[in-house]
Amino acid sequence: MDALEALRTRRSVRTYEERPVSKEDLETLVDCGRLAATARNAQPWEFIVVTEEDGLRGLAKLADNGKFIADAAACIGVFCEDSDYYLEDGCAATQNILVAARALGLASCWVAGDKKPYAEKVCALLGVPAGYKLVSLIALGYSSETPNPVKRPLEDVIHWQHFTGA
Ligand SMILES: Cc1cc2nc3c(=O)[nH]c(=O)nc-3n(C[C@H](O)[C@H](O)[C@H](O)COP(=O)(O)O)c2cc1C
Fold it and tell me: Rounded to whole angstroms, how far apart are CA atoms 47 and 90?
């Protein structure tokens, strides 16, 4: 699958089969995350790959809109050292991982982290040192679900030279 197809067909998927994701694929995902654009080339990120049931269940318990993490094959926590652009950098890395997952035939869903009341508890659960912020939790697995949420059409969102049609 080429990059454009992966970008165009990626969707958030929240049900997963009981099939593990290989270590090699998980390493590929983190590799794609670490290569994301990052302000001033700061690369403030750290990625925690959780595959054990206890850890997945613990994360699911904390994330109020991420209960499905309990059924995922893996979850990657994206953390960034607190810095001027930690959120933009961590989001860029997260999106890279979602698109790479699609390219590998994996289902994924971004689960909110930054600003959530449970963010510090997630850090504590995973042993993250002080000074780091949770940006996202990425649930991963194989799935036959193919969600098709409504997307705003291109002609509605594209503007040439100046903002038109408001
Ligand atoms: C910052 C951010 C936080 C999100 N948090 C959650 C979440 O906590 N739980 C969830 O099920 N989906 C979450 N999502 C996924 C969105 O619901 C999803 O991207 C949106 O509905 C569009 O669907 P799509 O990803 O299939 O295009 C989040 C997405 C973003 C970008």
Answer: 10
Ligand 1 midpoint to CA 137 (Å): 11
Domain membership flag for residue 141: yes
Q: Distance, CA 28 to ligand 1 centroid (Å)?
A: 22
Model's pTM, two decimal places?
0.98
Q: 2 is written with which tokens? A: 């080429």
Contacts of 139 (CB under 8 A, 6+ apart): 14, 16, 66, 68, 69, 72, 74, 75, 108, 109, 111
CATH number at residue 152: 3.40.109.10
Q: How many domains does the chain have?
A: 1
Please give the angle made by the CA atoms of 158, 163 and 166, to the nearest 5 degrees. 95
Q: What is the pLDDT of residue 165?
A: 78
Question: pLDDT band at 99, cuts 50/70/90?
Answer: very high
Instruction: Give nearest CA residue, ligand 1 atom 3.
Output: 112
6-48 pLDDT, tens digit each: 999 999 999 999 999 999 999 999 999 999 999 999 999 999 9
